[in-house]
Amino acid sequence: MHWQPKRQAALSLHTQIVTWFTDNIRSGDFPPGMKCPPQRVLAVQFGVNRSTVHTAMEELQANGLIESIVGKGTFICADPWQALLSQPKWQRYIDTSIHKPNMDTIQLINDYEQRSDMIRLGTGELATTLLPTASLEQSLAHITLSPRALGYSEPQGSIALREALCVHLQKRGIHTTPRNILIVSGALQALQLIALGLLERGSLVFHEEASYLQSIHPFQSAGMQLLGRRLTQIDKPSMQAMLQTRQGVCYVMPTLHNPTGYSWSEAEKQTFYTMCQQLSLPIIEDDVYEALQFDGTSIRPLKANDRSGHVLYIGSISKALSAGLRIGWIVAPEAVIQRLADVKMQTDYGSSALSQAVVTHWLTSGLYDASVDTLRQQLQQRARYTETLLHMYLRDVASWQSPTGGYYIWLRFHEPVIQKSLFLQLIQRGVLINPGYMYQPNDFHHIRLSFSYASEAELKTGIQLLSQLVNEALLSPKKKRPD
Amino acid sequence: MHWQPKRQAALSLHTQIVTWFTDNIRSGDFPPGMKCPPQRVLAVQFGVNRSTVHTAMEELQANGLIESIVGKGTFICADPWQALLSQPKWQRYIDTSIHKPNMDTIQLINDYEQRSDMIRLGTGELATTLLPTASLEQSLAHITLSPRALGYSEPQGSIALREALCVHLQKRGIHTTPRNILIVSGALQALQLIALGLLERGSLVFHEEASYLQSIHPFQSAGMQLLGRRLTQIDKPSMQAMLQTRQGVCYVMPTLHNPTGYSWSEAEKQTFYTMCQQLSLPIIEDDVYEALQFDGTSIRPLKANDRSGHVLYIGSISKALSAGLRIGWIVAPEAVIQRLADVKMQTDYGSSALSQAVVTHWLTSGLYDASVDTLRQQLQQRARYTETLLHMYLRDVASWQSPTGGYYIWLRFHEPVIQKSLFLQLIQRGVLINPGYMYQPNDFHHIRLSFSYASEAELKTGIQLLSQLVNEALLSPKKKRPD
Ligand SMILES: Cc1ncc(COP(=O)(O)O)c(C=O)c1O
Ligand SMILES: Cc1ncc(COP(=O)(O)O)c(C=O)c1O
Known about the structure:
The structure is a homodimer.
Chain A lengths: L12 H15 L11 H8 L3 H13 L3 E4 L3 E4 L4 H6 L3 H7 L7 H10 L5 E2 L12 H7 L19 H12 L10 E4 L2 H12 L5 E5 L9 H4 L3 E5 L6 H8 L4 E5 L13 H13 L4 E4 L24 E6 L11 E4 L2 H15 L4 H13 L1 H27 L4 E2 L8 E6 L6 H9 L2 E2 L1 E2 L10 E5 L5 H20 L8
Parallel strand pairs in A: 3-13, 5-6, 5-7, 7-8, 8-9
Antiparallel strand pairs in A: 1-2, 4-10, 9-10, 11-12, 12-15, 14-15
The structure holds pyridoxal-5'-phosphate (2 copies).
The site of one pyridoxal-5'-phosphate has 13 residues of chain B, from helix 9.
């Protein structure tokens, strides 16, 4: 028994142990009646906690593969075949199913994020200290529920929330009506609904070269093709040619882009919008960071000047209030909204009435604006502090632009050192990063450094460690270099 | 201008007016510069409210197709072509997209349900008078949010809720662990996740002859084939033959079935489970009505005796507490749960933390059980009253089984009178029904009569009207008969 479970695999340790036992029983290597070593021995051999072995053995027993005999020990069942043969081949089901699995790197990040001792330099969410948990909890006492709130929702979501959003969006220069709004369970779901309800298989989805879209799969899983482009510099003829044979759509983030943090200039927005108009190309404008411009000003979104109904505008409260409430919105021409509302009703019958009531309350009472004001200042402070650290530890090997809002610094290393191996080494040392290749295939130059999550102390330790490992990689003869 | 919008169409009246104007402008029938009749005239011509015309004209103006000149009136724009040409062809996008539109009959039901003056004899949800709105509102003051609750959720959902569910499910004879549970936004989403995360395109989805599954599209939209069967009577060889070439799964509701309200006997469950085991066929067990057995007893689900991990068990609080909270769960082997959790994170990043906290509170405080006890009695009373009405008004033309729980009576008319035309006539008279053909293609014998939504007075008026129209249809020489 020289095998050991892998700590960095997507499957949990005990699941790996269960699979390993099952495979050995199936192959006949562990024959019926064989006695298993005691759990404490197995724990040592596997290099895991005894509780992990215990969990695995419980599951093997539930599956009818091993049995305990009091006073004697644990044995492979006399007839494990029945259990083995009759189980549905779940893994085959999983492997051949439609939706893509998450990128390996992202699954690892998700797993390690569950551990409280990791320093998270990449996380795209707010630290618990930045979340208005106490005031949200207090505000619950002031929520009133309409008599129909506990029933199934109207297809487009709570009318009170849609009205509140009309007012909110006016500050962004968007003048719309409740009929043009669909409430969704976060911006991610908005993308999912657009993929299923508006595009045909094989459609082209243009996006910026480095893009959040590369890190998620709503479009690829629905059979669409992702195409990274410099969208602020016109490449009309080539796009036109491609759109002759296929439907298309363009996904952009002109304000506080994820992962770069950049915002487009007015001229870039104008050029881009005109191009899309000429191509009759719909635009998905993802505006989830809009509230987090440090100077409190608001950059006008494309949607504010959209006279020809090209823009499907997406917003969310995830980045400025709470991601756990799962509330976002789409603003679009009415026929599109009705279609997406139908698909939403068909997939989950609407978003949580409670979350909708709370967001309505926060928007209309002023609680939201006040909370975002504070947050902006806190984020700006964190951004400044992070830049100080970068100057101290990474100035020689990397460059970056000062962030003007949001959560991120798009840190560019002069050398292509941000390889998967570095990502894994950092995990071993307790540090999680979001490498550039999550957002752009084969980008080994960047890290999306987030100043929204880790504490000041963690940022310091994390960036120091990063600097150390990068410098080691730069010195190592094994490092990969382009040519 | 003899055209009028259709009241029973899927599109709202003002959208139909906008489309009609746009088509006429595009075709040149309404040339640039043409003066439009005043809104009050249009309202009379179209047979709609003036506010409907107003809304339509606002939208046409926003689209750049008409313009108002103060003191002169409203005109088709001098150059509407620019606006017409450059708009993305939204309708084409919608028509060619992946997810199926809702059945026409269901879209009509959804639309008319928005009107407060309809009598709803088919609605599968609780009347507002049966919802514990006041006590839920009060309970909000007692909700405590963990520091991480407002952030993105763990992939499988709140651990507190999963632990509470383990206790809750024990009452159903299901012994499971938090690792085997995934929290979802309602049972419908569970089906959606299984379709995307566990099945390949072309898979076979077996279900009972009349089935809720026919009225929704998660599987068909993902390219799967639905096959209605008598599942409690073995037809193993034919299923086996089909499963040689394709993956399959079986969707069943052994407890308080939708739409029939029936429950399987222990023998039927045993036979069915053994067959699936022999076929290595996974079972989706939809158990959303489990709490609503009138006599308060609990019929054991298949999952309680599932020793070989065949059953994907689905539950929800929608039917016994609140559909608006959007909380449901899947219980399944761990590898399956991990896969479905990954797909869930990829499509909406988890369910509302607030809804999860409230459901946890209701389950652990005893509020849930107390509320369900009351509800059961109220539903039983409504069922009895409804049966009295059926005896009075429909005894001669229809038959039914006394319900033992849930929301529904599966009313069988001796003649195939429940045609779409009858459904539409009833709408004209202000009554909404769920015809049998929603659940089984070409079933014109049944209505799913719901006693959970309409008030006693509405049930009476509605059933009287139903009886009247059915009797008229039976007398009419035009009625369709088989042969
Ligand atoms: C650019 C962008 N769009 C959408 C989302 C999803 O946000 P939500 O929580 O509203 O689904 C995120 C969150 O990471 C994001 O960064
Ligand atoms: C049989 C059945 N399954 C699932 C659902 C969906 O329930 P939920 O509100 O939990 O998504 C319903 C609701 O109509 C139902 O009747």
